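Lay summary. Proteins are chains of building blocks that fold into shapes, and those shapes determine what they do. In this project we predict the shape from the chain. Here is one chain we studied, written as its sequence of building blocks.
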Amino acid sequence: MFTNQRRWIYIALPIFFFWFFGQIDKLGISVIQTDPEFLNTLGLTGPDKNAKIGFMTFIFTVSYAFSNLFWGVIIDKLGARKTALMGLGIWTVTMVMGGLATSYEMFLVSRVILGIGEGMMIPVSGKFISNWFNQRELGRAQASWIAGNYLGPALGAIILSAFIASMHWHAAFYALACFNLLINIPMFLFLTRETPEQHPGIHKEELAYIRQSHSIGKETSKSSFTQDYRYWIVWFGMLMASFLFFGLSIWLPTYLVQGKQFAREAMTGITSLSWLFALGFVLLCGYLSDKTRRPGLLATILFGLCAVLLGIATVTPSPIVAGLCLGLAMGTQGGVFHLSNLFIVKYSTRETAGRAAGLMGFTNILGGVSSYVMGWMRDMAGGDFGPSIIMLIVAAVLGFCSYLFTLKKEAEEARSQTPKSNSVVA
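And here is the predicted shape, written in a compact code that computers can read:
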């Protein structure tokens, strides 16, 4: 059985840890920014401190989004493996820089460079998935690495809180650099290859199964993903999902500690649970997208559910219910993120997958804007989170409306597809 399933070890496993530690590097700041020593060291104590805190994520996502476009072109020329190693080297250095930072400006520089280094994550993953997996398992293949996207922060919140409590916030950054040096970089060096044809561990039976995905449906044109209106609907939906995701993930720990007076231990628990909610939605959507062939319908439902959960969070008097609803709302966007990356592969070819993913990754700019705007709105509202949560509800409604335009054609395609009886390689 294992003989013809090695792609899951050689590719899915390294990409899982790629995102597991990458997301802790990226989003661990949401936990670190609740540490008073960190805030005092960087001078984040004035009346505009919330806007400054939000700006740290905004400047990161601007750098991250623009570098997505750059990395997308590089990946299509150099390949995913070399690009991944280049990016890993860059972001390992920035973790050390973050730990050494003694001023707000110095820390901002480290976040900008981190954004450049991590900007290749979506294009690299999309390129590997496009090269290595059969068309019928794309949902599961995407879920295998996007799971790391959410399991990483779920455990990362606990890991970083432990480092901060037992040592100091600097140690958290140094530990993240070590994780890359000892785990991520060796995995990409020794396990991965650009294509299954180049890997000595892939047998011809597994290769034949993988390549079925590139011989089926050749008559359907995917030569230009930019000419498919549904790609742009997905792009706008990803824009709204990024806005919601960064707004919720960056501010949730602060909301729990300062808005609802949770102790650090309770904050850590709910924050970790929120990321596990996201992981659950990812796995569920990975299964349902392959089963129903209706990813657009799933994304529509998730945006609607997100709006409802955010609405409950604004009106409930219970702090626990509010925190859990925000966590579940963040979880729904994990599902949307998974489906959006599945659409990248669907609407592009092997040759253009890197560029399609890079353009999709550009939506992270608006995600970063939400973290800054929420901080600014909180300063203006005297510390109240209410107005910024209402803003997130509007974003969820816009995402819901955008995906409605994909449903008719998707339903027609689902009805026209006949079940395949081809046997799957065991």
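What the prediction tells us: Residues 213-222, 421-426 have pLDDT under 50 and may be disordered.
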